[in-house]
Amino acid sequence: MKKETDSASAPVSTSPTPTTTSVSMPMPTPKTKKSRRGFAGWSPEKQAEVARQGGIAAHANGKGHEFTAEEARAAGRKGGLAAQAAKKRAAERVAERV
């Protein structure tokens, strides 16, 4: 004959659930700073030196570029137009909500 049991009398697992891992790692808190890694961890002087060397190497390989006054004006104009368009789109979205 089959024995009927209710869910309240079901067997309970007695194996302990792990509350900690074998490797203790501190949990980051919102108040702690992240460590600066890679290029950001270097001193400003070292960053400038490496950037300078990279610029020299790029120009030596023919990959470097220096903007002319006209190219700089065109880039500034393009950026200004993009900013104006984004501002206009944002204003239109606000107007749609009202």
Summarize the structure.
47% of the residues lie in helices and 0% in strands. It is built from 2 helices and no strands. The chain is flat.
List keywords for this structure.
single chain; 98 residues; mainly alpha
User: Helicity, in percent?
Assistant: 40-55%
Q: Give the count of helical stretches.
A: 2
Major β-sheet, in short?
none
Outline: flat
Describe this structure in words.
With 98 residues, this protein is mainly alpha-helical. It has a domain at 69-98. Helices cover 47% and strands 0% of the residues. The protein has two helices and no strands. It has helices at 44-60, 69-97. It is flat, with a radius of gyration of 31 Å.
Itemize the secondary structure elements and their pairings.
Layout: H1 44-60, H2 69-97
